Amino acid sequence: MKRNFAILVTIGLLALLAILPVQAQDPVTITLAAYSTPREAYAEIIPLFQAYWLEQSGQEVTFQESYLGSGAQSRAVEGGFEADLVALSLENDVTRLVDAGLITHDWTANDYAGIVHTSVVAIITRAGNPLGVTDWVSLAQPDIEVVTPDAATSGGARWNIMAAYGAAFRGHVEGYEASDAGARQLLHDIFANVSVMDAGARESIVTFENGIGDAAITYENEYYAAQSAGADIEIAYPSSTILIENPVALVDTYVDAHGTREVTEAFIQFLYTPEAQAIFAAHGFRPPVLKSAGGEATPEAAATTDAATTEEASSEARTFWPEGTLDLTRFPAILDLFTIEDFGGWGEVTPTFFGDDGVYAQVIAEVQAGG
């Protein structure tokens, strides 16, 4: 009898706890260090997470946000800017923090290999596309003024360079040999037409919106951001371009110093919810590629649009998100969509292309010398 009574009391207490409000906790602050492009998306996602976390934990969370070019942001965190998490343009900017001992966990250990959203490199033109820009070769013609960010500070600039180089190297740029020499020549001819190189991708588009340049090389999502802001511009998709993959990672040293590991981990997980991904998509970001256990793209083609499953689309079938979860019809398929892994990954690309005597430095030196 006593045992039964104790069981009933226990059940009653559990039921009471289930209906009591979550116990309030002391407020917490997360510091987010991000590259400049997704600023508007985070402005919408953060309030949703704050409401979610308050309901789940009873804790108010505030955010301190910093937005710079990806490389500049990564170096700032390496140099002592105590960010709890980083949302950067390219993997190598996260690797810098791993090498510095600030990120000590496997930040790629989720279904998307740590990539939170993707995009493609495209070309933005003036309204009506007066110069008839259609592909990379258009940017190499005389009498066209091109805008692109500075590869010394901008991850976006590095994606742009690898997109153009890769398209030529893979034989998809008319008039340029499918080789390293042909790809270098395309870069030379494009950069001979570059008039302004800003620090970051967003600043570069602002420059273009302010009337400088005939065409801008940039992320696809920057087109949607500028269009939403009322810019009278058009987009041209090269037949061959690169899949931009943007990582997010918790910074172990700083979350442990701040006592923010739990809430920061929860925020990162929240970024992969349909609600957050829908906001990214609304701002022009494609969702991340779902990886198999072996790290390769899954063979199923539950992809971006109906067009993405046609024979004309890229031969690499990639599952970007559970089918039917997001409206991705605004994202056209690319005939030849390649990744940085086709060139060995950022670990190889960075020294080869962006080292002190890398491909990019050599091309710029030739352009400046008038060669």
Briefly summarize what is shown.
This protein has 371 residues and is α/β, with parallel strands linked by helices. Helices cover 40% and strands 16% of the residues.
Q: What's the SSE blueprint?
A:
Blueprint: H1 2-19, E1 28-35, H2 39-57, E2 61-68, H3 70-78, E3 85-87, H4 91-99, E4 115-126, H5 136-139, E5 146-147, H6 155-169, H7 180-191, E6 194-196, H8 201-209, E7 215-219, H9 220-228, E8 233-236, E9 240-250, H10 252-258, H11 261-270, H12 274-282, E10 336-338, H13 346-354, H14 359-368
Parallel strand pairs: 1-2, 1-3, 5-6, 5-7, 9-10
Antiparallel strand pairs: 3-9, 4-7, 4-8, 4-9
Helix pairs in contact: 2-12, 3-4, 6-7, 7-14
Please, could you describe this protein's structure?
This protein is α/β, with parallel strands linked by helices and 371 residues long. The chain folds into 2 domains: 7-116 and 246-282, D-Maltodextrin-Binding Protein, domain 2, CATH 3.40.190; 117-245 and 345-368, Periplasmic binding protein-like II (D-Maltodextrin-Binding Protein, domain 2, 3-Layer(aba) Sandwich). Helices cover 40% and strands 16% of the residues. It has helices at 2-19, 39-57, 70-78, 91-99, 136-139, 155-169, 180-191, 201-209, 220-228, 252-258, 261-270, 274-282, 346-354, 359-368, and strands at 28-35, 61-68, 85-87, 115-126, 146-147, 194-196, 215-219, 233-236, 240-250, 336-338. Strands 1, 2, 3, 4, 5, 6, 7, 8, 9 and 10 form a 10-stranded mixed sheet that branches. Strand 1, helix 2 (39-57) and strand 2 form a beta-alpha-beta unit. The protein is globular, with a radius of gyration of 23 Å. The termini are far apart. 43% of the residues are buried.
